[in-house]
Each structure stands twice: as structure tokens, then as C-alpha cells.
Amino acid sequence: MIRRVTIRKFKRFREQMFELAESVVLAGPNNAGKSTLLQAIATWKLGIDRWLAQREGGRAVKRSGVAITRADFTAVPLREMNLLWEGRKVTGPRGMSGTRRLIEIVVEGGAGEENWTCGIEFQYSNPEVVHARPQMAKDLDPEAIREFPPLEARALDIVHVPPLAGI
Predict the structure, then answer these.
(1) Of 32, 33, 150, 154, which is the most exposed, with the fewest CB atoms less than 10 Å away?
(2) Which one, of 53, 26, 40, lies nearest residue 106 by Cα?
(3) Using an 8 Å Cβ cutoff, are 121 and 138 in contact?
């Protein structure tokens, strides 16, 4: 079960933590972040699934990310990938050219005493492609890269169903 979602630099949020209970009702005014939370969870799961599809079982421990195209983002309709970034800023402030701002989505969960944490970073490549990798991949040892993501995160089934009018 997901207990907490932390998003950084995703859409309109610089950094926001959402605490979730066993049953959750998202209610609030327009532009409060209800859909953004659901889209962040779906984006996190897409990153996990792509990582597993392209890296699982491989012997490579390179810390490079896996490519995800704009067409893959069914939970978030996008004209171009920079719309995922807070303020559409994909690089650092002026004077820091070459520094890339990463979207970070960290999901924490557990059942009983068994807790787990799993974070994914997204790096902008171009208007059609982003790269996903484990959070802080450059600091992880090769074994941690091979074991990513935790088994509990792999087992989650997440489906984003966009709102439908008239139902």
C-alpha cells in the first residue's frame, strides 16, 4: 500500500509531500493538485516499468536512464515533455548552464511493519524524450542498481483512469 508520495519539480510543485491513508478521497478546488498527484503516481510507475523492461536481468550496471517517449505518457497528455517540469524549467538558473533539473518522484509504502521506499528521477532530453533512472543513481553501488526497484514497488498495479464527463 502506498503511504506517502513526494514530488519535486513536477508540474506546478517545487516540492510537495502527500500523506495517504488506506482509503483516500481527493477533494478540493480546481488547480489544487488532485490530478497532479494521480499523474505523479502513474508517471512513477511508468518509470519503474520501463526500467524493469529495459534493465532487468541485464548485467549492465551503468547508471544511465531508460528512454521514455512522449507517446508513452498516457496519464499526462503532453504537447512536449518540458510540460512535466515545474515552470517548464528543465535546466538550472542562469549562469549554471549545463545543469539539469531532475523531476523526482518518491513513493513510500508498506504493510504492517514492512516498509519500503522507491524513488525515480526523470531527466529532460528533448521535447519528445525523457530518461528515467533510480533516484540518486550516481550514488548507488552496482548491486543496488541491479536490485532496483524493491519487490513491493514492482508488485504494485497502478492504472490511471482520466476523468470522464457525464458519468
Answers:
(1) 32
(2) 40
(3) no
Q: Which domain holds residue 66?
A: 2-155
The total of other beta-carbon atoms located within 10 Å of residue 13's CB is: 18
Cell triple for residue 46?
511508468
CA distances from 92 to 40, 98, 99, 133, 136 (A): 22, 7, 5, 19, 18
Q: What is the pLDDT of residues 40-67, one digit of tens each?
A: 999 999 999 999 998 766 666 565 789 9
77 within domain boundaries: yes
Collapsing DSSP to helix, strand or coil, 49 comes out as helix
d(CA 63, CA 38): 27
The string of pLDDT tens digits covering residues 147-165 is 888 889 888 888 877 777 6
Question: CA–CA separation, 44 vs 5, rounded Å?
Answer: 10
Place of cell 519487490: 151
- Rounded to whole angstroms, the Cα distance separating 159 from 59 reads 30
Number of domains the chain is built from: 1
Q: Are 121 and 102 in contact (CB under 8 A)?
A: yes
CB atoms within 10 A of CB 107: 28
